[in-house]
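Handout, section B. The chain below has 676 residues.
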Amino acid sequence: MKVTYSWLKDFLDLKIPPAELAEKLTMAGLEVVSWEEFGGDFVFEIEITSNRPDWLSVLGIAREVSAICGLKLKNSQPKETKIKIQEKLPLKISVNAKSDCPFYSGRIIYDVQVRPSPEWLKKRLESLGCRAVNNIVDITNYVLFLTGQPLHAFDLDVFCQKEINVRRANKDEKIITIDGQQKTLDSEVLVIADSVKPVAIAGIMGGKDTEVTFKTRNILLESAVFNPILVRRAKQKLGLQSESAYRFERGVDFATAKTASITAQELILKLAGGRPGIYKSIGSLKLASFVINLDTTYVNKVLGVTIPVIKIKQILTRLGLQVKAKSKNILSVKISGFRQDLLLPIDLVEEIARIYGYAKILKTIPAIRPGKNISDVRDIIRGFKNILSSLGLYEVITYSLVDRALLTKSGINPDKKLIEILNPLSREQEVLRSTLLPSLIRCLAHNLDQQQENIKIFEIADVFSDKNNSANEEPCLGLALCGVNSFLMKQGLVKDEVTLLHLKGILGILFNKLGIRGFDFLRQDEHKIKIMIGQEEAGFMLDLSRQARDAFDIKNRRVVLAEINLGKLFSYINLNKKFTNIPKFPAITRDISFVVKNDISAKDLLLAIEESGVPLLQQARVADYYQGKQIPPGFKGLTLSCIYRLDERTLTEEEVSPLHNKICSLLKERFEVNFR
């Protein structure tokens, strides 16, 4: 947004130098990117944040300068020329798409003289980077920069059957815009149309056929309010940019729509002559009043300073808000239409701090209440990442906003109510993710397309759900594995394709390193395994279905996934370390290979060995698992490693053999294993 020093002086008694003004604006949040001299004036270029569309006007900037510098803002309300008009409206105005256009107005002005603009108007527009066209068009642009309300002037005499209608475009309708481009439209685009064809793309650009030229004698002056989302989508779809679209897509102030029209009419009558005709409006400019009760003691408590009540009231009033004293310390603040970003008392506190001056707020260390240290959680998360990285996994970061199609495509639908975005920037960002896995699958598929053979990725991020009509946010860990060991493949050896066992091993190491005990993996069905911590389900592992793999164009690859609710994990983490000496004497390891029924879990086997109380047995663990041609249907092959050790000396084979035989006998008797 550009604004000139002289234009601001039309509304304020400015005496401070331009450099000082630029500094004050920047310190108050209106970052002045640059300022330079232009034709004896000074032009400021200001970076405007998306939540402050009211700054996209000279009056909006002047209002801020008034508050920052403590200057009185001169009255800028236009006075409409009062002429008794007896003729009827020369064309029919209607709005079919009322939800897309809550307000539309047309003002008729007859017998105008279209000619070049006076030098002062040309200079003012050119200083803002706007090309002068003619007095009518230049006036609409002038009022746009002045008030922030876009206007458009049509040549009244070229409308077919004297009809104008605001509607959605029909499929494959075409329009040639003022810049000479032909655009093909569809039902996603809002248009201004006569009885035959579109004459303008609503909120973006007018059509070539109805533009004001030096031959124009009668004009229709449009002032309206359009749906910001619709304008943004149409702009992106059609590849069009304009100052009008820039403001409409951010939201305009309803109250300005009529005053801008009056301002433009008065300037047209002054610079182009003519006489005013009928003014017709459809819809309402009234918005429901919104009041915030502000406790001034709360303001001072948050900011850590003492600002008098009268000063707080003065700041808010100069910002264009209506303030009344409700009690000694309570102010009733009525929010104006141009400040829809103010919703809560803390928003007003921020405005007060900004105008009062951040430099006046003392730099003190806030009091810290005893409680759960946030840094502890961060340290745990960092520990998660370090462990997974050490196991060969790569961290990825994906978007929190996803499209419904992605969730459906993955076939992973957690029993969670989705949170929808009211004004998504695109269809790919229409809901908050309820699971990390679809995004991880998409990331994995992309890497496969880049000829990556072995992919191991993870993400730690929040997932969202609607719980009792309020947003529920939970931290989660997502993992995705796919592919083969590239080294083994290059050596011509058997492809070590990832399975759920690989994933189980990674999670087992993770849990052990975090001191988590009592975890278990329970098979739910052929493709899904529950992850249990104690008696609570903390997550699941999943073998991605063939249908889902095909949907992501993952061919001849196995994909295994896991998702864990970290909130359920935190209470089980024990990072207290216990020191143990490095063994002085070597261990003796004996393996047991056997075939056992599928319904007997490795956990049951290891638990039975542990409970047997075999002396000198330090550890028993699963060393190998196999299912294939050599194993009968309904059975699996397992190898258990038993580690025997004595701290005082080296064990002998004669000591270990009877103990190992005892374990073998236990397995044979209790589980009917067949040794290999």
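Note. The domain at 2-69 is CATH 3.30.56.10 (Phenylalanyl-tRNA Synthetase; Chain B, domain 1). Compare this with the example in section A.
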